[in-house]
Amino acid sequence: METTTIQISGMSCSGCVAKLTSVLGRLPGVQSADVSLDNGRAIVQFDPARASVDVFKQAIENAGYDLS
Ligand SMILES: [Cu+2]
Questions:
Q1: Helix or strand or coil: residue 28?
Q2: Structural domains of the chain ordered from first start
Q3: What share of the chain is helix, strand, coil (3-state, %, to 5)?
Q4: CA of 55 to the centre of ligand 1 (A)
Q5: Centroid of ligand 1 to alpha carbon of 49 (angstroms)
Q6: Which of 22, 42, 48, 57 is at a distance of 20 to 30 A from 65, taking alpha carbons?
Q7: Helix spans in the chain (H)
Q8: Is 27 helix (H, G, I), strand (E, B) or coil?
Q9: Residue 68 has what pLDDT?
Q10: Per-residue pLDDT tens over the stretch 28-42
């Protein structure tokens, strides 16, 4: 497993956190997604053979948030 931290801008409430946690958590190869509103970031634990940071970033943007 690998862990990556992704900075996200545009989250404004716990609903955003729940949405992104769900979006990231559903991606193949993701073991856990820990999204923090206060820090504006997601910490994702994943299997590098099945998932990549690029896929996470794309999913975050598709959900309507920006990468900072
Ligand atoms: Cu929100």
A1: coil
A2: 2-67 (3.30.70.100)
A3: 35, 35, 30
A4: 22
A5: 32
A6: 48
A7: 14-26, 53-62
A8: coil
A9: 83
A10: 999 999 999 999 999
